[in-house]
Amino acid sequence: MQIIILENAEQVASGAAQWVAEVIKQKTNPVLGLATGSTPISLYKQLVEYHQKGQLSFENVTTFNLDEYHNIEAENPQSYRTFMKQNLFDHVNIDQEKTYLPTCRNDQNPRVQGLAYEEQIKNAGGVDLQILGIGANGHIGFNEPTSSLASRTRIKTLTKQTLQDNSRLFKKDEYQPTMAMTMGIATILDARYVLLMATGKNKAAAVKQMITGPVTAMCPASALQMHENAIILIDKDAASELTEQEYFQWANQEHQKINQTFGLFI
Ligand code: F6R
């Protein structure tokens, strides 16, 4: 794991944007794994800005989102398709036919839909860089605690904590879905690079468990310890429970010298 501790959320967003831009520029047909939620919003803002300044083209980019609510219309204001359109897709030159989310209607078998999503990812050549946030309970995607570390795209029932955390995004009388399709932990681990962003004190305990706790289904993000190329971009608040902060800062300075000479990726 490469742990990068930055001053604030703004720096986390621009750090993440640099990694994403680098993948897009280096690969002929870049495949990005995308996340929704509050954390990546400023990353997407930065990417839109790069695009508007003529510095970044999404022409050849394919995207796969981590998750989508079960049985939700794409046009529903609460769908993750709508979130992605509002925050990224509608503002860049991406071919929206090449933007995928793991959808599943009531009349569709979630197992078949899950397998089909895995197949689509494979056919696109696999994910080059997977963007992740982390839940206060350690979830990645909607892989809630106790999710199998070998899980693949499937339907999950959300925990009370996740429903509570996300209730801020729904109006008082609005229906809040309780189930979602999500890439599995093994799906996420298949990405060539994973980049997890975390900001704020409410993520500090989960971040500590992810980095220094045991690899356990009780903290799905801890599975990233088993990933060869995991980049963890966090602000000081999210890092506040880590006792190894000084070492991480030092190691990162050393890494930066290597990055400056050889670039961010192999
Ligand atoms: C979103 C997702 C979730 C979020 C996590 C953090 O697609 O998969 O795992 O990344 O719940 O959400 P925020 O960023 O809103 O704190």
Automatic annotation (TrEMBL):
Active site: D67 (proton acceptor), N137 (for ring-opening step), H139 (proton acceptor), E144 (for ring-opening step)
GO molecular function, one term: glucosamine-6-phosphate deaminase activity
Entry EC no(s): 3.5.99.6
UniProt site (Part of the allosteric site): S147, R154, K156, T157
CDD domains with a match to the protein in the record: GlcN6P_deaminase (cd01399)
Keywords, sorted A to Z: Allosteric enzyme, Carbohydrate metabolism, Hydrolase
Activity regulation description: Allosterically activated by N-acetylglucosamine 6-phosphate (GlcNAc6P).
Quaternary structure, from the entry: Homohexamer.
Function: Catalyzes the reversible isomerization-deamination of glucosamine 6-phosphate (GlcN6P) to form fructose 6-phosphate (Fru6P) and ammonium ion.
Family membership noted in the UniProt record: Belongs to the glucosamine/galactosamine-6-phosphate isomerase family. NagB subfamily.
Protein name as annotated: Glucosamine-6-phosphate deaminase
UniProt organism field: Shewanella holmiensis
Lineage start: Bacteria, Pseudomonadati, Pseudomonadota, Gammaproteobacteria, Alteromonadales
Gene this chain is encoded by: nagB
